[in-house]
Amino acid sequence: MTRIAKKRILIYLAVLIAALSFVLVFHVAFAFLDENNNGIINSAGISSDVVDELKFIPGDALSIAATSKTLPELGNNLSVTSKPQVSLKANGTTNEASYPYYIYLNLKNNGFIYSTVENTPEVILSVIDPEGREVTDIPNLSYSTTYGVDGFDVTTYEGLIPIANAYMISSNSSDTATIQDWTITLTYINLTTDQSPNYGKSINTEVIMSKEAL
CA 153, 197, 119, 74 torsion: positive or negative? Predict the structure, then answer.
């Protein structure tokens, strides 16, 4: 074999070795990257498992319209009810979570007036907390009993009413949520006196729920 032929064989072998080395390095690098990528995905799964699941369900908006049909003489009271709900599911890492929250009733477009000279309450707000207890203390509102209905006089009120102030909810499960139900009722009292000054008038509301005070 000539010297030139031997030289060509050596060159071919060198090229082949270089090619095989490149393939080996690429394979190892790809495997390393693939392993790291899987690690990142797994880490993302773990990190999502430390997130608590707090949900607010505001319930129905409340509205009352006074007419001779909805409030017939010597008829029944007119009541509407909303049932806001708060649920909390703890993360799967600690299985423990606690949060304060806030609930407001926003009274809007209230056209009602007192139809009696004594300013007898006509629109009453009643609230039952998740423990089944009647709420009897709300800032700037007066609690009383009117014609057998317990609650706060909101006959001419407009604006935000704090229903729940930093009320706590806790959970010790990542599978089953802790649920707290509220009951908010507006009642228009059908008085024994003439209420026709309020016929054609109405009130609208919305329930606002938040993790922060407004």
Answer: negative
